[in-house]
Each structure stands twice: as C-alpha cells, then as structure tokens.
Amino acid sequence: MSEQKFCYKYPHPSVTADCVIFGFDGVSIKVLLIQRGIEPFKGKWAFPGGFMKMDETAEECAKRELDEETGLKNAAVEQFYTFSDVSRDPRERVITVAHYALVRLSEIKGGDDAASARWFAMDEVPGLAFDHDRILRMAVNRLKERICFEPIGFELLPEVFTMTELQNLYEAILEVKFDRRNFYNKMLKLGILSEAEPRPSGASRRTPTKYRFNAEKYTEMKQKGFRLEF
Amino acid sequence: MSEQKFCYKYPHPSVTADCVIFGFDGVSIKVLLIQRGIEPFKGKWAFPGGFMKMDETAEECAKRELDEETGLKNAAVEQFYTFSDVSRDPRERVITVAHYALVRLSEIKGGDDAASARWFAMDEVPGLAFDHDRILRMAVNRLKERICFEPIGFELLPEVFTMTELQNLYEAILEVKFDRRNFYNKMLKLGILSEAEPRPSGASRRTPTKYRFNAEKYTEMKQKGFRLEF
DNA sequence: GACAATTGCGTAAATATAACGCAATTTGTT
DNA sequence: AACAAATTGCGTTATATTTACGCAATTGTC
C-alpha cells in the first residue's frame, strides 16, 4: 500500500474534470474519445479528463488533461454540468466537472500522446465508461441550445467556408433541414459573415462564395442582444 | 487539534453546495441570505450551503443545507455552475456547486433554524462572503435566460394570480417594461394559463381575472418545442 | 449533349410583433 | 357628491419577420 499522507477531519470526494470535444467533418458531428488503458472500465471508451490538482481551477484542469491525453492545446472549453452521483465511479467517491469544446478536426493530429484517441460519429459512439453516456447526452443538448444563440458553430469549420458547409453544420447539430435560400438570407442578414475573397469577377455561378466569420461584428451585435434563431 | 482520520494518497479539495434562492414580493425580486456566525467572513451575508456528505449528490446536499439553515424544504433547486477558483475560500481548497431555486415568499416563515435568514431586494444586497457576489451575478443571468424559455416564473407567484402580477414579475426579472395589452395577448395565446375561477358573472371591469398555471398544457407544448419570448 | 445538382438572387403569402384606441368601472381626492 | 386618475378587458392597425417557393446560370456526370 502506498502512503496515505493527505489527511482530513471529514471525508473528501475526489474531483475530476472531463471534456466532451465536438468536431465536424463536413457531414456529421463527431466526439473525441480515448480508450481507457487501466481499470476500471479498461478497454472502454471515455472522455479525456482526470483529477484536479490543488492549484488549478476545473477549467484549467480540463485543458491540461485534454492536452496530456490528446495533444489538443488551449481548447476553449466551457463547463456545463457537474456530475455527482454517489456511485458514478466504482473505486471511490468522484465528482466530475464536465466541460465541452468545439474544435476543428484539423487541430488534432493523430500520433502524440493520443495513440488511443479517436473521433466517433455521434451514431457510432459505443457504450462509454462510468456515466459518460449521460454526460454525452447532456453535452449534446447543451450544444444544441447554445448554437441557436451564439455562433459557436464557426469554431467547428475551417476559417474559410461556404454557406452550404455552414448550413450542413447547423443541420447536423440540430438534426433538422432548412430551406437553403432562407438559411442563406438569414445568415447574411445577421451581418456576422464577411466574404473571404473578393469573389473572382470571372464569376461562374457554380463556384460558391467563400465566407469568413466576422468576430468584430459579432461582438457588436451581442451587446445589442441578438438571437441566432432557427 | 482534532483527529485527521480520512487520509488519501493525493490531496482532495472540499466540496460544498450553495443555494441562490429567489423570491418575489409582488414588486421586486429578492434573494435569501444567511448571516455567517463563524469565521471566515463572520457577520457577512452569504448563501445557504455547506459541505457535501459522501452519500449524497450535490443537489441533495443543496436541499439538505437549505432546509437546515432556512427551514425551506424540498425546493426545486437546479445546479447552474461550479466555482473552483483556487483561493475562493481562505481556509482550504473548496469548490462549490452552485444551485438556484425559485420559491414563493409564503413558503419560508421566519423563526426556525432560520433566525439569521433574511430576504434582500436585489438592489439592497450587501457585499457577500467568499465569491458569492460573483455567484449571485451568474445566478441572476441564468434566471433571466431561463425565464424566457420556461415558465419558471410561476414558481414565484401564488397559485392564483392576476395577469398584472405576472407581468410585474417578468418586468422585475428582465428589467424591462412591456405593453400591458401585448403581454396579455401573448401569455394567453401560449395557452398555459387557465382561469382560476369562472369569473363572477356580476362582471365588474375593475376586478381582475385570476389565473392559474396549467402544467398539463405546458408539458404538451414543451414537447412541440416552444419559446416564451419577449 | 442531355440531365441532375448547385448556387445566387428574388418575391409573395402567412405569421408574428409592436404600437396604440377606447369604454366600463373602480379608487382616490377634495 | 363630484371629478380626476388608474385599472382592466378587448380590440385594431401598421410594421417586421418568417416561410414557401420560382427561376436562371453554371457545372459535373453519364
């Protein structure tokens, strides 16, 4: 037995931070999972995450663990719920502060520490370790809510994208279909898109306009209070 | 020194659950605070809350502490954020799972254990203990968001209420003014209100219609996905 | 070359929102 | 008692917004 040198008058739970990382490949939404190498749930897939240190916040912990386990650095993680069921970890009492983040698939390269990290399409996600199935459901709901009010979707696309790509993303997340022309109009009217390149005058209808997310205008609009409704 | 009998290989933070309790007196939104009797922050006001036991979830802890400290039982608390700043408690590392709930003022009677519990109007709240000022700001934001999508406001009113009372509540929470007639139409069109009494045929214009929240219709509507927008 | 698919740009109809009128009554004032 | 101010119920109208499509110019496919 190893030393048990941190002692308290009352029992304390362990605290972890986990990360639900969403990506988008142009067709469907994906989540990043790692395969557990140790018990419990050895061999099962789970979200990147781990124990919080005493000198870091939950968010810092989530980012550190994410980097350590997948090589993904400085993701814009956001806390969404704390899971505290008494028996969610068979070893001991562990509560976890769950986070989520949206990343471009290109940002995470294989290799690295991330030998066991893999993207799964939402409908291919296997049964997960611990209560991570529940965590995933809640993360997906939060993502759906959030994308209607903030243009977080842009974090999932390449810097430059077409309107069709943007629509595909929204349709994938919200699991609905939009009329192409109405979607087009609505997004343009919001004013948070800029044309990426001046569109070659040689026109050609079929070559789609490339857009880029305009963060300045977004900040402007947000203060006035706007909604990205669908 | 007391015994330190719970020992771990790695340091563990303490975990608490706190409750931001909102009430409404017909004019303004209030929060329930308790005055601290011990250090740190002795004499300062803070949210009800306390240390989590090993056999209860964060939510159960929040409810138990709320009952113990204010006599308020079975409030429908809902978790909204976990605060984990490293130095938020001067004694030791403490992370807190913050909850909020809406209660009818009538539900909480003075006396009890709650000698030191008091309602404060939002603009009378003093500087709070720990990082509770920040917690309050976030709770208020969450309340504003939420009331636009779910009729949680009804939890703050008596069972039977007039349209004017309902409007006052919305205006107090959102800090805006609505046109009385438009508010009236919008709420009625939602279909989640029922007339409480068949309105005495003796009419009399000035006596307002009493309504009651219709939970059945609400559940119905929620599945179709609706929005209480303003 | 025929044909389906994609893109840009509109337009008309259906809905929803916002602004406000008005009469019946009750409350408050003097 | 007389009168002004406030409250409630029930409308209406003007203005936006949302939704449902039309259509032509390409481009890619077979």
Concise synopsis of the structure shown:
The structure is a homodimer of 230-residue chains. Helices cover 27% and strands 24% of the residues of chain A.
Radius of gyration of chain A: 20 Å
Roughly what fraction of the amino acids of chain A lie in strands? 15-25%
Give the averaged pLDDT of chain A, no decimals: 90
Give the chain pair forming the largest contact, with residue counts. A-B, 31 and 31 residues
Q: Give the quaternary arrangement of the chains.
A: homodimer
Low-confidence stretches of chain A: none
* Approximate shape of chain A: elongated
- How many angstroms separate the termini of chain A? 57 Å
Number of helices of chain A: 5
Tally the beta strands of chain A. 11
Topology order of chain A in helix (H) and strand (E) letters: EEEEEHEEEHEHHEEH
Biggest sheet layout of chain A: 7 strands, mixed
Q: Pairing-aware structural class of the strands and helices of chain A?
A: alpha+beta
Helix content of chain A: 25-40%
Verbal overview:
Two copies of one chain form a homodimer. Chain A is of the alpha+beta class. Helices cover 27% and strands 24% of the residues of chain A. In chain A, strands 2, 3, 4, 5, 6, 7 and 8 form a seven-stranded mixed sheet that branches. In chain A, strands 9-11-10 form a three-stranded antiparallel sheet. Chain A is elongated and about 70 Å long. The N and C termini of chain A lie far apart (57 Å). The model of chain A has no long low-confidence stretch (mean pLDDT 90). Chains A and B meet through strand 1 and strand 6 of A and strand 1 and strand 6 of B. The first copy, chain A, binds a DNA duplex (30 and 30 nucleotides) through helix 4.
